[in-house]
# Entry
Amino acid sequence: NEKAEIVQAEVRIESPDTTADVLLHTSQIRFTSGPAHHFNLDLRPRNQGRQFTRQSGGASSWPVGMKLEVAITAQDRFGNRVALAAAGPSGGLALRSNVQSESMEMHPSNGILQGSSDEGSIVEIAGLRAGIVELWLEPVSLNASAQQFKQDLRKRTVRAVAFSSSSGPAVPPPAPAQGVVGLSVEDARWKSRADEVRDAALHAWTGYRKYAWGRDELQPVTHRGKDTFGGIGMTVVDSMTTLWLMGLGDEFEQAAKFVQDDLDFDKADTEV
# Structure
């Protein structure tokens, strides 16, 4: 995995004798990014100067024939970037769609993600017919051990892309959409927008965990905690329903453990 952070640590060993030398030891502690927890599929025109419109309703809309780049990146649960080569089973990941090559071209044609750094990978696509296409990631290796990962990865990464012609709006593609396991096609169209909101919430939670854990709130500019509700960790309590509704299970468990082990209204320094 790529480097996430390097911390300089200094250890001082002092003698009770004030005239004795002070022994200093300095070393580096290297933290690497953790396992991939979030995947981003961002669409943009290959030529940013071209004019384009976005379709409301959660699905991005692009003209038929426009060359697009799908920029794919992965992050661990703390927001550090993860190399895509380390983000799945051996064999790597690939971009997949629910339409044939007659409806959308893709380069590379097999959709396999290239590159080993944490900068991500780019796959080029272009719609050849007006319609709504679903894109998602899946492991290249389809052995038995990768089946559950394949299903989970599709749920987490699927997004809808609409291609429209000058003669009218996008219509469903010739092949019926398969949908997402557990989601309707309509819900799948909103998924990319929902993922953006979810990632923003996770970013806020990660910052609070890093800089102000146990304090009532985080001051984002100074990266310092502040107690405004008695010093009980109000952000933790207030965030639990949001974490649960957004499906952030690990983060919810962190909050639940805090409530179980550390929340004590009797210790509040003001009336709550």
The CA atoms of residues 216 and 233 lie 4 Å apart.
